[in-house]
């Protein structure tokens, strides 16, 4: 079993039939991403039902990530399906709705004239077009000079790398989409264009008020987020390196180092991290990836990411099954490299989780020393699963829980397999039973060494305070 997880974006290519989606899951999909920038609630509801049906009839426990659109800034409709912006010419950007021409276009961001300053860059269509602000009336009109032109078509995205935007992190559309996602009990909620830890705290407050147990994925795609990255990672439950918008908002050459930096900090705080955008983009139309894409996926795995993500490749691409198969092959090959394992972090003394952290740290160290085949942990909150996963043991991590939502939620975590278990009789009985179950499933063999982590007494469902090494 591969340890690095695969996140696949749902769309017409992957959900046109339950057979296609099921085959994608068989080939290696662990998390299905619902992109709320596209599709209706009815479309997403149908996809959720398909995933749940596959989970019910199998033991895949595929997770569902609802990805909110966030304050995405776009231009409006333009004439002739596209207008040509010529270098050196001027373009007026207005917040009054109109059909765009080569002289004037409409922008959906109403506070744009107020927030922008002379000299600010305006990037359109993922940075392919670049403009510079020359004047603003601070009301409804901004004058720009075209620095690097080209063809601009309708509803293209706009990035403002020098501008502090005043849009709320959760838009009215996001609020409606979030209510739908939480009502349908998704496992993870992706928050787009996060700027500070306060954005995460606000979303968590909404989730808590809805009495939901969904976890938060902070999408890092703004320079402000990089400035506040450690506090964001502490506040959130997981991170997504959204390299598309991030690579437009910050100098593109800085993205690889930023990716490595975020993976390192996430491991330190035991938070899963997803590397996303353009990983196998050529496979939207081609049967095989480019060698550069193979290297990109491989390097993300070597960096220590928990998951790699596909966007258009599985939502609208021609080869949704083949792209998962190719990605799984790459991941399995790279995971033969010993460099990615054994990343133990010494637990901090005198903090609330010191005993549990010490138990997890020593369990992973012991697993390496005795070449154990598995670490087995009982959990209700999922904490030990996050902690063990972050230490990157070479052996498998098996999680037993009576908390059904954890079964799917934990499927994002590196190296973790979760199983439903509610027979908490005694510590010794539970340890014996877990080994028996894994042996019966063919995941462990007789005579192999395993490590069990548990809380004693087990019926109190307290924090982990025990490590046991034994043979199967």
Overall description:
This protein is α/β, with parallel strands linked by helices and 472 residues long. The protein has three domains: 5-69 and 169-335, TIM Barrel (Alpha-Beta Barrel), CATH 3.20.20.60; 73-159, PK beta-barrel domain-like (M1 Pyruvate Kinase, Domain 3, Beta Barrel); 354-471, Pyruvate Kinase, Chain: A, domain 1 (3-Layer(aba) Sandwich), CATH 3.40.1380. Helices cover 36% and strands 22% of the residues. The protein is built from 17 helices and 22 strands. It has helices at 12-15, 18-27, 41-57, 112-115, 172-183, 197-209, 223-227, 229-235, 243-249, 255-268, 291-303, 312-315, 320-334, 354-370, 383-390, 404-409, 427-440, and strands at residues 5-9, 31-35, 63-67, 73-74, 83-85, 90-94, 104-106, 121-124, 129-136, 141-148, 150-152, 157-159, 188-191, 215-220, 238-242, 273-276, 307-310, 374-378, 396-401, 416-420, 449-454, 466-471. The strands form four sheets. An eight-stranded parallel β-barrel has the order 1-2-3-13-14-15-16-17, surrounded by six helices. It has a seven-stranded mixed beta sheet with strand order 4-12-8-9-10-6-7. Strands 20-19-18-21-22 form a five-stranded mixed beta sheet, sandwiched between helices. Helix 6 runs parallel beside helix 8 and helix 11 crosses helix 13. The radius of gyration is 24 Å and the shape is elongated. The mean pLDDT is 95.
């Amino acid at each position: 079993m591969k340890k690095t997880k695969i996140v696949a974006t749902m769309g017409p290519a992957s959900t046109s039939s339950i057979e296609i989606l099921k085959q994608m899951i068989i080939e290696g999909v662990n998390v299905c991403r619902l992109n709320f920038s596209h599709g209706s609630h009815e479309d997403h509801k149908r996809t959720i039902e398909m995933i749940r049906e596959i989970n019910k009839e199998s033991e895949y426990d595929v997770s569902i990530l609802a990805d909110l659109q966030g304050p995405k800034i776009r231009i409006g409709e333009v004439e002739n399906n596209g207008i040509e912006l010529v270098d050196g010419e001027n373009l007026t950007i207005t917040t009054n709705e109109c059909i765009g021409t080569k002289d004037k276009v409409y922008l959906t961001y109403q506070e744009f004239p107020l927030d922008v300053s002379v000299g600010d860059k305006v990037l359109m269509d993922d940075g392919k077009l670049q403009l510079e602000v020359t004047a603003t009336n601070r009301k409804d009109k901004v004058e720009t000079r075209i620095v690097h032109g080209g063809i601009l078509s309708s509803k293209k995205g706009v990035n403002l790398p020098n501008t502090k935007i005043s849009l709320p992190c959760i838009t009215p559309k996001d609020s409606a989409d979030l209510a739908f996602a939480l009502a349908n009990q998704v496992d993870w909620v992706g928050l787009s264009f996060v700027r500070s830890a306060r954005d995460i705290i606000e979303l968590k407050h909404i989730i808590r008020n809805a009495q939901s147990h969904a976890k938060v994925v902070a999408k890092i795609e703004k320079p402000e987020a990089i400035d506040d990255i450690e506090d964001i990672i502490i506040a959130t439950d997981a991170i997504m390196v959204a390299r598309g918008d991030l690579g437009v908002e910050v100098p593109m050459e800085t993205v690889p180092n930023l990716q490595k930096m975020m993976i390192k900090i996430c491991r330190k705080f035991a938070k899963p991290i997803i590397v996303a955008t353009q990983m196998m983009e050529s496979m939207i139309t081609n049967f095989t990836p480019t060698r550069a894409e193979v290297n990109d996926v491989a390097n993300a795995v070597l960096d220590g990411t928990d998951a790699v993500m596909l966007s258009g490749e599985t939502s609208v691409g021609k080869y949704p099954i083949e792209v998962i198969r190719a990605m799984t092959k790459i991941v399995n090959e790279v995971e033969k490299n010993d460099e990615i394992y054994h990343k133990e972090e010494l637990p901090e003394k005198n903090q609330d989780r010191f005993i549990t952290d010490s138990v997890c740290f020593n369990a992973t160290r012991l697993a390496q020393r005795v070449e154990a085949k598995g670490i087995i942990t009982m959990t209700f909150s999922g904490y030990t699963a996050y902690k063990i996963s972050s230490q990157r043991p070479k052996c498998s991590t098996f999680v037993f829980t009576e908390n059904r939502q954890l079964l799917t939620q934990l499927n994002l975590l590196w190296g973790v397999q979760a199983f439903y278990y509610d027979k908490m009789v005694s510590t010794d009985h539970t340890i014996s039973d877990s080994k028996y179950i894994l042996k019966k499933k063919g995941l462990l063999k007789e005579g192999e060494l395993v490590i069990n982590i548990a809380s004693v007494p087990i019926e109190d469902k307290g924090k982990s305070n025990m490590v046991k090494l034994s043979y199967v």
